[in-house]
Specification:
Chain lengths: 340, 348
């Protein structure tokens, strides 16, 4: 069976462990090396040991490996451009975690570099590979569900600095490194999902984004946005770090979807069960199928030499909508988006 | 109570009047429903037969009865002011269905008339009497989630009426933002304990009836408050038939120290299965949007306020504020821009 060699660069992002595991498990890929870059390099080294693959203190040493086809980039978004520049210079495909960059200009540059190098660029937005949303998208595409009218969605998580374990995710609450707070961090997945379900570009955005829950937090923790797409679909999203300590689920996702043919209510993107440990109840998701699906899509796109399901342009469009939400919140006005 | 009873006249025996309010009187011993009125004779007589009250087709005749101290108004929204002011001017205390009325001018006329006559006026913002929401309000008041800062609300149903029904008509019923949105705007004010400074709404005409009537049946409404709170509502009549029952309402209240979540479907205590229909969540209340008990509590509260000469828990100013927010939402949906409060008069 055809397969390719992939590596992981940086454990700065809380998703890195999940992607390393999904790459290791992917039938068409082998995890062949892990590089530390920035925070949580100890964790990266530990993981390399666990997977029995070399650890690279300098990620350029990983990128110069001839057998390496591509990398998952789990750095803070401010480093994405730098890493993509090095990876594309060596002809490596890039699975770059979200948001693609801190600015639309950086996103442009990342897209240009990968196009010129002729490598694949994909940004993993989980909802596209969550089974309930895949069913909805299929029902919309087949016409079975009629036309999409609106999506009323939430995406709530807990404050990332409360993620258990020794890893340091403090950069997620540093505006210089993360570019935004809870609304950007957790919301951008749903922003992409709204645009994907709508099958249209955003036209107008109105939002309120702020620091409502954690006094003194240097970034926003909660936001609410209404987005109108060119085809008339309305998206409504509330997203942020709204799940308090002790809440039984880390992640809450709801998509409530009205179509001209009916409605879909998605209460959770994953299959779950409840675990009671004597003190409290916790909801456990038993399969993160979306991460496996995202990695498989990236790998298949490389093997089949085709565009991945989620492109750099998609990621840039999601970033543009998110940034428009921040702009609307600051100005109190509706922000109109232009599309060339 | 010592057996003291107040005689009540019900004006309007349509969906809410006959379906919601009328049966509630049987469970409010402080009140005696003695007269029912509807311009449609059939409806008045059917209501009279069910309740044992006298039937009227002209509300002015009902208002002439001196034994009636409380009038319960369940006529279409655009007729609220006319009926309420007529009742107030005959010295009756008035309980009037939500939304208060369809314009701020009419709302102010109602308030002024009640002040002048020295009678009580309460608008039936029935969520404030619904056990689900009074329980959540008690948790908020007890500080269980810290300071509430964000409320996300969905109120959705399939409006079962034909396109010529007044509910669809922007002039007579106001469409979904006024009719359903006013529940959300009132809930936001009540829970946040703040006043709104800005409303933004995006709305659509989804169903054929809404398009024919030229009104909105689906809306996303954002309300910003003076204390920093935010309310976000989906108000809709466009959801499929059968959806409204056990899936009507959803509520998240996010506070600085916790969160409260409510959804009708999560609290439905029973699931039935039949080979013919498959899985069903049974409906326990005629209106899932409002339990029968909420109408009972609302009526009981108002009647007790009259009996004991106390101020009702929902003031006319509360109802006016909820209306003003809904009207701002309507204007925002029409113009595409956020609308600041207080609402300036429409320049025609």
């Amino acid at each position: 069976m055809e397969s390719i060699e992939l590596g992981v660069i940086s454990y700065a992002h809380p998703h890195a462990q999940k992607y390393a595991a999904a790459i290791a498990a992917c039938p068409w890929a082998d995890l062949v090396g892990i590089a530390g870059l920035g925070v949580n390099s100890d964790l990266a080294a530990e993981e390399a040991k666990r997977y029995g693959v070399p650890y690279y203190a300098d990620y350029l040493d990983l990128l110069t490996r001839d057998d390496l086809a591509g990398v998952y980039v789990g750095t803070e978004p401010r480093r994405h451009l730098e890493v993509v520049r090095e990876a594309t210079a060596r002809g490596k495909h890039v699975l770059c975690d979200k948001p693609i960059a801190l600015t639309l200009e950086e996103a442009d540059e990342i897209i240009r570099l990968t196009r010129e190098a002729g490598v694949k660029l994909m940004v993993p937005f989980n909802p596209r590979f969550q089974l309930p949303l895949m069913k909805v998208k299929a029902a919309l595409e087949s016409g079975e569900a009629g036309e999409l009218v609106s999506v009323f969605a939430i995406k709530y998580g807990k404050l990332p600095t409360k993620i258990p374990g020794p890893a340091d995710y403090g950069w997620l609450v540093d505006p210089k490194q993360a570019g935004g707070g809870g609304f950007l961090d957790i919301g951008i997945h749903a922003v992409d999902a709204l645009r994907w379900l709508a099958g249209s570009e955003a036209k107008r955005v109105y939002a309120h984004v702020g620091t409502a829950l954690y006094e003194g937090l240097p970034v926003d923790d909660l936001g609410t946005m209404t987005v109108e797409f060119e085809n008339g679909v309305v998206g409504a999203l509330s997203a942020g770090w709204a799940n308090p300590d002790g809440y039984p689920t880390w992640l809450d996702v709801r998509f409530e979807i009205l179509t001209t043919g009916g409605a879909f209510l998605i209460d959770s993107p994953y299959h779950d069960y409840w675990c009671y440990d004597g003190a409290r109840a916790e909801r456990q998701y038993w399969w993160r199928r979306d991460v496996d699906g995202l990695v498989a899509e990236f790998v298949r796109a490389i093997l089949e030499d085709r565009e991945p399901a989620i492109t750099g342009e998609d990621a840039q469009a999601a970033l543009a909508i998110s940034l428009a939400a921040y702009e609307s919140s600051a100005s109190g006005q509706v922000v109109a988006l232009e599309h060339g | 109570m010592a057996g003291e009873q107040i005689k009540v006249g019900l004006i309007g025996c349509g969906n809410i009047g006959a379906g919601g309010h009328l049966p509630a009187y049987a469970h409010v011993p402080e009140a005696e429903l003695v007269a029912v009125c509807d311009a449609v004779g059939e409806l008045a007589h059917a209501a009279a037969e069910r309740s044992g009250a006298a039937a009227y087709t002209d509300y002015r005749r009902l208002l002439e009865r001196e034994d009636i101290r409380v009038v319960d108004i369940c006529v279409p929204t655009y007729l609220h002011a006319q009926a309420a002011i007529a009742a107030i001017e005959t010295g009756k205390h008035v309980l009037c269905e939500k939304p208060m009325v369809h314009t701020l001018e009419a709302a102010d006329a109602m308030i002024k008339a009640a002040q002048k006559a020295g009678v009580k006026l309460m608008i039936g913002q029935v969520r404030r009497f619904d056990h689900r929401y009074t329980s959540i309000k008690a948790q908020l008041d007890a500080g269980k989630v810290g300071k509430p800062v964000f409320i996300r609300r969905a109120e959705r149903q399939f409006l079962p009426f034909p396109p010529d029904a007044w509910q669809w008509d922007p002039k007579r019923g106001g469409g979904v933002i006024l009719d359903i949105g006013v529940h959300a705007t009132d809930l936001f004010r009540w829970f946040l304990d703040e006043d709104a400074v800005e409303v933004y709404a995006v709305a659509k005409s989804v169903r054929e009836a809404a398009r024919e009537a030229g009104s909105f049946d689906h809306a996303m409404i954002t309300c910003k408050f003076d204390g920093g709170g935010v309310g976000f509502a989906e108000a809709s009549w466009a959801y499929p038939q059968g959806f409204g029952g056990t899936l009507y309402a959803q509520l998240d209240v996010v506070g600085t120290e916790g969160k409260i979540q409510y959804a009708d479907k999560d609290t439905n205590p029973m699931l039935t299965y039949t080979t013919e229909k498959g899985h069903e969540l049974p409906r326990y209340f005629r209106f899932m949007s409002t339990t029968e008990y909420a109408f009972e509590e609302e009526i009981r509260h108002f009647v007790r306020c009259v009996l004991n000469d106390r101020e009702p828990a929902v003031s006319p100013q509360d109802a006016r504020a909820a209306l003003e927010m809904a009207l701002a939402g309507q204007r925002s949906a029409e113009t595409g821009e956020p609308v600041s409060l207080p609402l300036r008069k429409e320049v025609e």
